[in-house]
Design a protein that fits this description.
twelve-stranded antiparallel beta barrel, globular, 14% helix, mainly beta
Length: 202
Amino acid sequence: MTSERFAHPTYMVRQKILRLFGGAFQVFAPNGEVVLYSEMKRFKLREDIRLYTAEDMQHEVLTIKTAQIIDFAAAYEVMDPTTGERVGALKRKGFKSLLKDEWIVMDTMDQEIGRIREDRMALAVLRRVLNFVPYLDILPNLIPQKYHATLGEAEVCTFSQNFNPFVMKLDVDFTPDTAAALDRRLGLAAAILLCAIEGRQW
């Protein structure tokens, strides 16, 4: 069942390599099974990311879209296409994210309910500086990023980049969310965005 795909305590998101255009990611359950497949629409001025139950892309279970032309401070609406339900939204903190990545987590009414923040300012700045150093732009990949998602003061999820300079991998851990306060669909949408949007700087 589709609902079971969003019920695992941990996931691993892995970039699918050897693609000429667009971006694609496999989402693995703890047992190593691919439970979701994500693909970005090609040649779009507005971000359009879809999650499917499998790589055949026959059954779409989540959409992540922005109404704005690509913007580093755009809001991304997360929808369940099977029910038409609006799951919530995620918005990148534009200028603030130039030094340290930060996202706002919003509910179905666009009210802020939480934040997703990159771990440490010093490491965040170092990654960005190295991106501009000729011949050393692979080095930021050797400083894995980690994000903490909070609702109010409570941590509900962590997103941890694996040490891999060539393939983007992100571990997603919902185990801190003992009260199940964060909709896993919104949390996984955030994971895909961190890979697809923030991952462009790695």
